[in-house]
Write a structure and sequence with these properties.
alpha+beta; single chain
Length: 98
């Protein structure tokens, strides 16, 4: 059985994304999609992180980060950078960093 390609991508989400359960919901959504990685609040008021998984799950999570978020959040924009293919996962699960 051929191994599936793992995509690694970093993200940063701008808007009202702190104090609105955005990180908790990000972990829940990423875990549902079987993604691995992390997210954290930044001093500038954004949420940034990295995620790894198959292309379809990464695509779905990008949509969620840019358009859905947590119920009380307001997403102004989401940026994705340093997208690349990797051979093995870098993270054991998806978590919040402090």
């Amino acid at each position: 059985m051929a191994s599936r390609e793992i995509i690694h991508v970093e993200f940063e989400v701008y808007g009202k994304v702190q104090g609105v359960f955005f990180r908790k919901n990000t972990v829940d959504q990423a875990s549902k999609l079987k993604l691995k990685g992390w997210c954290m609040n930044t001093p500038s008021g954004t949420v940034k992180g990295a995620m790894e998984g198959d292309a379809a799950s990464i695509r779905e999570m990008k949509h969620w980060l840019a358009n859905v978020g947590s119920k009380m959040s307001r997403i102004d924009k989401a940026e994705f950078r340093n997208e690349k293919s990797i051979s093995t996962f870098t993270f054991p699960n998806f978590s919040v960093r402090h």
